[in-house]
Amino acid sequence: MNCLKCGNCKENTPTYYCLAKGEIVINENYKPDVKVRTGWKKGTKDYEMYRRKTKKEVEI
Fold first, then answer.
1. What is the pTM assigned to this prediction?
2. Main-chain phi, psi angles of 4, to 5 degrees
3. For position 1, what pLDDT does the model report?
4. 17, 8 contact by CB (below 8 A)
């Protein structure tokens, strides 16, 4: 089997299709990305003002 240098094995995906082998391969070097949560956090001044404002709108 000669590598066709398609680049599928170089991408950070859990599985990829190898053209040379003609099959789907499980990537043993896969490293999942760290998910970062962005948005409001409790305790910040802007969050508290936004929360109180939306709470008033819901009650009305």
1. 0.53
2. -90, 0
3. 66
4. yes
